Amino acid sequence: MGINVKFTIAVIAVAVIGFTASSYFFSTQPIPSDWMFDKSKYIQEIDACLEAHSFDDISINSFGKSFVTNLKQQAEASQSEEEVKEILNRLYDITSCEP
Predict the structure, then answer these.
(1) Measured between alpha carbons, how far is 79 from 99 in angstroms, rounded to an integer?
(2) Coil, strand or helix at 55
(3) CA distance readout (Å), 32 to 25, 36, 78, 97
(4) What mean pLDDT value characterizes the chain?
(5) Which candidate, 89, 46, 41, 44, places its Cα nearest to that of 65?
(6) Residue 99: helix, strand or coil by DSSP?
(7) Domain map of the chain by residue range?
(8) pLDDT exceeds cutoff 60 at 33
(9) How far apart are the C-alpha atoms of 59 and 90, rounded to whole Å?
(10) How far is CA 23 from CA 29, 65, 90, in A?
(11) HSE-CB for 32 with a 13 A CA cutoff
């Protein structure tokens, strides 16, 4: 056997072993769904509350607007859906916005 044939067989063997090992690894561990959630519907709810606290560019309550803006930034930076839901619960508890 020439060196080209041995090299080709070695590459194929490494590819097959690597694919088999990775498929086994990923089949035994569940893929977390936390990294795949849609924040946009939650942020739209926060935006609706922010609009309720303002009239065009004039804020009815500057503390409320600042609070809601801060919660919106926290929601945009959140990493999980539970975190966003907690932010919305705080929003509904403290402001007059309704779910």
Answers:
(1) 22
(2) strand
(3) 14, 8, 16, 32
(4) 79
(5) 46
(6) coil
(7) 1-31, 40-94
(8) no
(9) 20
(10) 10, 50, 42
(11) 5
Higher-pLDDT residue of 2, 90 = 90
**In the predicted structure, residue 89 carries a pLDDT above the cut 70:** yes
| CB-based contact 72:91 (threshold 8 Å) | no
- The dihedral over CA atoms of 86, 61, 45, 85, expressed in degrees to the nearest 10, equals 0
Q: Is the pLDDT of residue 53 over 60?
A: yes
- As a residue count, the chain comes to 99
The two tokens of residue 40 are: 């946009």
Cβ atoms 43, 75 nearer than 8 A:
yes
In sequence order, the 6+-apart residues with CB closer than 8 A to the CB of 8 are none
Cα 70 off chain centre by: 18
96: its two tokens:
């007059």
Q: What is the pLDDT of residue 48?
A: 85
Q: Hunting for tokens 């500057």 — which residue is that?
A: 62
E strand or H helix at 26: helix 3-28
